Inverse folding.
């Protein structure tokens, strides 16, 4: 019984330890998966932010180049027109044309210059709008980066919490192992004490049986002597005494036989809980006066 009890305790302890180890392994696996997802999200959003920045910087450079190119073309065209009309005015002056024609040419030239300046202003307005759009996009990128930084911080906090939980579980498992070991040692000590007590009780009962058998033999010898005296004296008083002693002797014989049967049934190494209680009841029921 002791071996079976130990094996049951060890199997229960092993099952609990395996369960705790599996729980810790699962938490570690979840922690690694969370770290992997966090790194993937971080890498993905960093790549998206970098791509958006590259895209809008390229767009801004392209727009700026187009505006500069158009401005340069307008300036070149304006300069050509201005030179052309200036040359015509000089030719007109040379040919002594009327001042009115010169004035008309100058007004026409100024109108073209005003139109050209307006187009240049429009190009500057478009450039400013593109710059504002780029600023808005840049602010959006900053906001998205802050959001993803918050997500990353939350993931790191979850990872820290998981690590703390793993540490607490390992500490709890160690404490439970120590408590189980102490309980198992106490149980072994108690079982050993009970076994020793039962062995001592069985030994005492065996000694008691030997003593009773010796008394029985002594009583039989006395009975035989009394019978001889009764046969010689033939007194009623001695007959009654012999009958009483015979009855006592028979009662003791029955008691000794019953006690022998009970003790022979006992196997200390294979005692079960109900058998231990039965042996204790038998030992308590022994009449010391007998």
């Amino acid at each position: 019984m002791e071996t079976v009890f130990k094996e049951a305790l060890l199997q229960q302890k092993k099952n609990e330890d395996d369960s705790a180890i599996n729980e810790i392994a699962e938490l570690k696996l979840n922690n690694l998966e969370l770290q992997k997802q966090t790194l993937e999200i971080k890498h993905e959003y960093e790549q998206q932010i970098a791509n958006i920045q590259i895209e809008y910087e390229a767009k801004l450079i392209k727009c700026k180049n187009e505006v500069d190119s158009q401005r340069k073309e307008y300036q070149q065209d304006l300069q050509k027109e201005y030179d052309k009309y200036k040359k015509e005015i000089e030719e007109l002056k040379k040919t002594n044309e009327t001042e009115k024609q010169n004035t008309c040419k100058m007004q026409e030239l100024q109108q073209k210059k005003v139109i050209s300046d307006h187009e240049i202003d429009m190009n500057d307005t478009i450039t400013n709008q593109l710059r504002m759009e780029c600023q808005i996009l840049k602010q959006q990128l900053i906001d998205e980066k802050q959001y993803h930084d918050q997500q990353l911080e939350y993931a790191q906090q979850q990872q820290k919490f998981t690590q703390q939980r793993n540490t607490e579980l390992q500490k709890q498992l160690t404490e439970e192992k120590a408590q189980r070991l102490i309980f198992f040692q106490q149980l072994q000590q108690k079982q050993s004490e009970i076994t020793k007590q039962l062995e001592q009780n069985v030994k005492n009962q065996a000694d008691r049986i030997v003593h009773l058998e010796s008394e029985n033999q002594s009583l039989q010898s006395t009975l035989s002597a009394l019978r001889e005296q009764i046969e010689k004296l033939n007194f009623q008083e001695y007959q009654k005494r012999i009958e009483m002693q015979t009855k006592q002797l028979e009662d003791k014989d029955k008691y000794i036989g019953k006690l022998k049967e009970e003790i022979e049934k006992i196997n200390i190494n294979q005692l079960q809980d109900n058998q231990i209680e039965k042996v204790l009841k038998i030992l308590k029921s022994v009449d010391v006066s007998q």
